[in-house]
Every structure is written in structure tokens, then in C-alpha cells.
Amino acid sequence: MYGTFWALVPPLVAIILALVTKEVYSSLFVGIVIGGLFYAGFQPEAAILHIFNDGIIGSLSDSWNVGILVFLVILGVMVCLMNKAGGSAAFGRWAASKIKNKVGAQLATILLGVLIFVDDYFNCLTVGSVMRPVTDKHKVSREKLAFLIDATAAPVCIIAPISSWAAAVTGFVEGEDGLGLFIRAIPYNFYALFTIFFMVLAVIMKVEFGPMKTREAAMKTLQDKAEEAEKDSVKGSVADLIVPIVALIACCVIGMIYTGGFFTGADFITAFSDSDASQGLMLGSFFALIITLIYYLIRRTLSLKELMECVPEGFKAMVPAILILTFAWTLKVMTDSLGATVFVEELMKGCADSLMSFLPAVIFLVACFLAFATGTSWGTFGILIPIVVAVFAGTDYTLMIISISACMAGAVCGDHCSPISDTTIMASAGAECDHVSHVNTQLPYAITVAAISCVTYIVAGFTKSAVISLLFGAVLTVVVLLIAKNSSKEA
User: Fold this and answer.
1) Which of the ends of the chain has fewer CB neighbours closer than 10 A, N or C?
2) Burial 7-41 (b: 16+ CB within 10 A, else e)
3) Residue 367's CB: how many other CB atoms inside 10 A?
4) Higher-confidence residue: 467 or 161?
């Protein structure tokens, strides 16, 4: 089964089960067990040892994964602190006087998501913490908030030269100017660009379809959650939310450039390119937590006892996300041990020569499928980008850039759609939304943009023009939204 399509069966089973049963823990576990049995030749003892030793224990002893879990727990504690101090409720009251309607609340969420482009994990949890009181106030469903967060996390990071994602992509391009290629590829990163365009237009035009339309309609009959929160804590001020968030942003940026060697002589861009996002975010969030605790003590917003009570509460709030992440990482180990990367690599090499003009669209679809099945966009970059560089090196430079963009766009698309993706899990945690509900409601939107992007890559493969391709895709996006709006009215 090694290096064959069977390697992708375990994650596909987990994803299908999660979407059908609406229960993510058991679905992921079934996928893990199938992967373990495949790897061990259906010998139960060997399968169990592989699942626990290589999978669960291996994932939880990986320094990158542990750093992300520590960051997640600290964020949970900080959110609990901000809520208990009344900062979130105060920000909700302040925003209500500035943001007058539902459209404004959603656009403000998108704007904040675009501005926080340093890292997708950081984006998901920070935007969720800040905007949740505002979107609750204007009766935006948690599913819609999760979609807005998810759609401005990875898509923004993948077109921002100063981000952990740019650093990852640059590292996979051997023998070429990685950062230069990344910057030249931005205009061709259709999924990221059209996702943001689609999202803004859909909010302004008030277009909803699929399960999201049902969730948004249900919100009209619910009591305002933000008002309930205000009853619990009217003592806080806006500063009780702003100061911790600013401290978090500043400390995380400093933490990332510190791990990249900024304080030992590297320039800012190089430090970001060489940064360890996991360690940087972990260190940054820790110091931001210390600043937050000192700030609340000085202001006497909360007593020491109340501050310490938030530590286990914040941890408990993040347990579902931690459990899903652990299972998702374990499933990835199962998939890797079955040689999924070998299968996809051979598949891509087989079709590379005969489909040159269609290759960007083919690469986009393969990257979508691989990232969706494995839940990792970075792993998808690592497999496909070296293949693309090898195929086009010294031949068609423009088509190489378009194809590298297709790798990145497809990886982000699959990552965006996948229930076992880190970013999707983080978006659910940031919005405090049921994970499977988030996946179900955002899938029709993500698939719509994916279809538009795929057609646009076909156009780009023949025209090799960013301007023509972007105009074509933008017009197609507007047409699709108009059709969806008219269909919604008729329904």
C-alpha cells in the first residue's frame, strides 16, 4: 500500500465521516486506526504501537507541535482574562457606537484579518478574540465569524512577503531566488486574492447560500449574546482588551524575529524568513501574558486569585482544539508513513510533460486534493514546489511562476476546506464555533472560489498574463455572486 492511492484513504475516510456524522473526534480516530492497520499489514499489535508511539506520542513530543499547543493554551488564558476583566464586553459596547450594522461588523472583521498577516494561527485566535463581541452584538453567526477568520488567515499570509508562510515557501525553492519568486507569484495567487474579493463582495451584496444562509437566518431570532455578556461584566474598559492585544501582537512579532536572528545581526526581512513561527509565537504569547497580568494587577481590574482562576479556565476552553489538533497531527503521521508524498510526486511527474498550458490548473487541483486529504498546506508546498521548479528550470520562467502560485493557491484552498487542517481548527477555536458546523457552512463558499480559481488558471496557462487573468477571474466572481443572489431571492 506504500506510495499508492491507499495512502490517502485514511484521511479521506476521516473527512467523509466527520462531514456525515457531524462528530469530529471519532471520525479522526477511525481514520487513524485505518492508517495504522494499513501500515502494519493489518497486524493489531504493530498497528497500536505505530498509532501511539509514532503517531500520538511522536506528535506531542515534536517541538514545533508543542510550541503551537503552548501558544494555544496561553491564548485561551488571555481570552479568559479579557472576558473576566470586562474588556471584551466594553469593546463590544464601544464598537456598537461606531459600527452601526451587520455589514460593518463583518467588514471590520475582514479588515482586521487582513492587517494581521504575520501568521495564520496568530491571525485566527487574535481576530476571533477581538471581533467576537462585535459580531455577537450585530447577530452575525459564529459560523460566519469562523468563515471570515479562516478566509483571512492563510489566504492573507500566502500573499504577504513578511509572514511565516513566505518563509516556508522560500525554503522549498532550491536553486532560485525564493523570496523574489514568492513576490512575483503574488498576482497569480488566484485563490487567495479571489477569496478576499469574494468575501468582501458577498458581505456588501448580502449574499448567503448553502448551510450558512440557514445559520444566518437563525441568528435573527436569537437573543443578543453580547448584551448577556455585558450583564456579567460592566466594570471593564476598552483598554482592558486593547492593551493585551497590542502586547500580544508586539511580543509575537519580536518573538518571531528573535528566532530568526534579528538581535544577532540579521536584517528584519531575513529574520522573518528564517524565523521559527512556533517558538516565536510561544515566547511572544508568554511575555504578552505576563504584561497582561501585571497590567490588570496595577489597574486592580482583577485580584490575583481571579487572575489565577483564569489559567485553568483558559486551558479548558482550548481542550477541544488541542484534542482535534493532536488527532489531526497523528493522522498526518499515518498518511506520511504510507507514502502519500511519494504517490503524489509520481503522479505529478507523469503528467508534467503532456499538459504544459493546462499544468497550472492541474497543479492547483492536485494541491487542493492533497492539502484537503492531509490537512497541511506546508507539506503540500514541500512536495509540489520542488517538482515544479525542476520541470520548468531553464525553460519557461513565467509558467514556472504561475505554476508555483498554483501550488500555493491549491494548498491554501485544500487547507481552507479540510476539517483536519490546523488553520480550520484554529478558526473554529477563535470564533468559539462548533468545528464540524464551521466546515459544513464554509465549504460551499470555498468550493465556489476554488472553481473560479481553477478556470482562471486555465486562462493564465494560455495567456501568461496576470492582468488578463485577474480581470477574467474578478468578472467571473461578480457574475457568480449575482447568480447566487438572484437564486436566493427566488428560493
Assistant:
1) C
2) bbbbbbbbbebbeeeeebeebbbbbbbbbbbbbbe
3) 29
4) 467
